[in-house]
């Protein structure tokens, strides 16, 4: 009898490529058996598919119950179920699981025997009543339909990068105000939230810090949403300044270069204050903006650090100088109250959030303005696109050009040591570590980004198909294998020699068979593509006499379809092989001149 692991993998393979044959599956199974871990989650998703495949008319909740129930008692352990759910990236605190968490809480309260709810065992009906309100999300999680299907594997790699960067003790904590100066240089946190709300956090992820310049893309997004890009860009440009973030400089139109530097952000604040919602009082406007930020963070409560605000205002000679310089050049909208605008800018810098919260803000930006957790449309997709474009070109102060080149994902840094990283359509990341490099970016944060991009193909210009040495965590590992076999066989059937070469360079096993045991050599021979047959035999050294499920060899295929050149080549190869002539002494290719 096949082991559980074996059956699971076979099932995954059947599921993910209709074109893969049992023989190849068994072959792959042998390979995977050594690397797979028999986790609850893997078992769960295997069994889920198993039921689906068998066409049993079970509802999803029943299937889930079957997966997790104890075979002897027939009861399901909540703890085991919650662990498996967490492994998919979902948290119990996810607002989309509100009802589920609510019922668990009630159960815990009703637990008079002192045991935690995790050890509670449920029968099918109780289990159904718990998960039914949120069955859609839970079912997607176990079907591995999230953007990062192998979430645990991905997190392991993130953790490795985290520890590597922790050793980096370069940089100095910002010291222009005492509140920032007091920050420990040892703080280091990384939080991730994907566009499907999968969460991962490590390190100091629950300590609030002031978001400082990470507020700039957010206020810019709000201004775009409220006023539209045309109005906003009457007042501020889209060019990198190539200068320091608080440099006393305007562009050739006497406008601030972009909204990611201080001058531009001050103007954006003046637009939100003066043009948008002009009827609101100062206090209302602050609440309104704070509320926007909170909605970006999935309706979590953010803080406001009054001491930082007061300090920022006191130590703001340069920002005031910038403000007056822009006043001289009539950069502000009409009716703007200069002092109030400056205060509003300092207030936005003094908003407090944790790494976890900022990662959710990033995920909202990665998800076109819809917060993955609250599912609320906070910003319009076109506003988000503009925000990301400028984060990409101007988000890292004077390092922006190099960062866009090396890392290639929209990112904004702040003097508190935070980095808001957005991988469009995938995830938001917040990195926080106070020591800054000479250009004002978090040393550990920048290193983390560089390491991340070395490993995963997240750079906007990484090729998703052919970046052979990088991992694409968006793909299911089995799906990738199955699709590659199908592509390989299509190339062979079409006589696409460059396509075959590409597969070989990508390190593919060129003798992999499809569902019917057909290999690239079978197809190239049957279609009479002698150059492909030659390439597969000589360069790839594929076995020449492999049989498909009907017992046919590539030579028999060529004979059936009368491809003389291929027949001669395969027969020569056959003779050589039986005489054991080394492969270097290749016969001439008949019909190839
Ligand atoms: N409060 C800071 C300032 O305006 C924010 C700048 C920053 O984070 N780079 O100077």
From TrEMBL:
EC number: 3.5.1.2
Reaction it catalyzes: L-glutamine + H2O = L-glutamate + NH4(+)
Pfam families noted in UniProt: Ank_2, EF-hand_14, Glutaminase
Domain of life: Eukaryota
Keywords: ANK repeat, Hydrolase, Repeat
SMART domains for this protein: ANK
GO biological process terms on file: glutamate biosynthetic process; L-glutamine catabolic process
InterPro entries linked: Ankyrin_rpt (IPR002110), Ankyrin_rpt-contain_sf (IPR036770), Beta-lactam/transpept-like (IPR012338), Glutaminase (IPR015868), Glutaminase_EF-hand (IPR041541)
GO MF, one example: glutaminase activity
Gene3D superfamilies in the cross-refs: 1.10.238.210, Ankyrin repeat-containing domain, DD-peptidase/beta-lactamase superfamily
ANK repeats: 516-538
Start and end residues of each Glutaminase EF-hand domain: 61-149
NCBIfam families: Gln_ase
Family (UniProt): Belongs to the glutaminase family.
Subunit text: Homotetramer.
Name recorded for this polypeptide: glutaminase
Organism, as annotated: Ceutorhynchus assimilis
Lineage: Eukaryota, Metazoa, Ecdysozoa, Arthropoda, Hexapoda
